[in-house]
Design goal:
By secondary structure, the protein is α+β, with helices and mostly antiparallel strands. The protein has one domain: hypothetical protein PF0899 fold (2-Layer Sandwich). It has two helices and six strands. The protein has helices at about 1-15, 40-55; strands spanning about 25-35, 60-65, 70, 80, 95-100, 105-110. A three-stranded mixed β-sheet has the order 2-1-6, covered by helices on one side. The longest helix is centred in the N-terminal third of the chain and has 16 residues, at about 1-15. The relative contact order is 0.25.
Length: about 110
C-alpha cells in the first residue's frame, strides 16, 4: 500500500505546481530508480485509482525506470548497481561506494490538455 501514498504525493505535487488545479492536466511523467524500493507494477496499478479519488480520472502516468549507478570509493570505478549492497564489479569492495543514480523518485514534467 506504500505505492498508494506515493501516487497521492505525485498528484499533489502536480496540483501544487499547477496552481492547485488538476482538471487541465493530461499526463505526468516520472522517473523511478530501480534502487528506490518502489514496486513499479503496484505504482502503475494504484495511479488511476488515486487519480479517480482525486477527481482527475483522465490523468495518465508516464513512468521511466532509471538504472542504479555507483562509484566505488576504493578503486574509483563507476558501475551498474543492480541491488543495494552488491560489491564493486571491479575490485569487489562491499558497500564502499556512492550511489549516483537509481534511488530517485522524481516528477519530471506534466502536460496540460490542449
Amino acid at each position: 500500500m506504500h505505492e498508494f501514498s506515493l501516487c497521492q504525493g505525485i498528484i499533489k505535487q502536480v496540483a501544487k505546481a499547477n496552481h492547485e488545479r488538476l482538471d487541465n492536466v493530461a499526463e505526468v511523467s516520472i522517473e523511478v530508480g530501480k534502487l528506490a524500493g518502489v514496486d513499479v507494477e503496484s505504482l502503475q496499478f494504484w495511479f488511476p485509482v488515486v487519480a479517480e479519488k482525486m477527481n482527475c480520472t483522465m490523468l495518465k502516468l508516464n513512468l521511466e525506470q532509471v538504472d542504479g549507478l555507483a562509484r566505488c570509493n576504493q578503486c574509483g570505478t563507476s558501475f551498474n548497481l543492480l541491488n543495494l549492497y552488491d560489491p564493486c564489479q571491479n575490485c569487489g569492495a562491499f558497500s564502499d561506494y556512492v550511489i549516483e543514480h537509481g534511488r530517485e523518485l522524481l516528477v519530471k514534467s506534466f502536460s496540460l490538455n490542449s
